[in-house]
Amino acid sequence: MDQFTFTDMKKIKRKNLGNVVPLELFRTIRLIGLYQALPMNGKGTTLTIGRKIGEEFGVTSVNELFELFEQLKIGIPIITHEDDKGMTIAVHDCFCEGLPIMEGKMVCDLEGAIIEGALTKIRGKRVSVREIKCNVNGDEYCEYIVKY
């Protein structure tokens, strides 16, 4: 085996520390390690990573994807609009909620890319996802436009 899978990630045997890491660590990796340290705020990297993660989730429906999002504590996604061209997804309780407001900043591109990768796999054809609202920007929740 030369690559890890999402199934591999669920094999946890930490006797003392368990299966949870603090949100502060995740935020630090994302917003200091990737967002601040990489060119273009790490967008190319997080988009590539997120799409791959979404594909590897192995979900077969939007409901499964949303349930997994919540189980993994990524956020609570809700479809706020849907038609034959796409949908709008609001994500409540996102990892960025509570961070200082920085107007004009959208930092949840990884979550959008995860949605994109999973929906592309579910639909069997390319889907595009773009973040249009973010808690860090001062919005009430994070929101994504999905185009089929």
From TrEMBL:
Residues 86-148 form the 4-vinyl reductase 4VR domain. It comes from the Bacteria. Gene3D superfamilies: Trafficking protein particle complex subunit 3. This is 4-vinyl reductase. InterPro entries: NO_sig/Golgi_transp_ligand-bd, V4R. Coiled coil: none annotated.
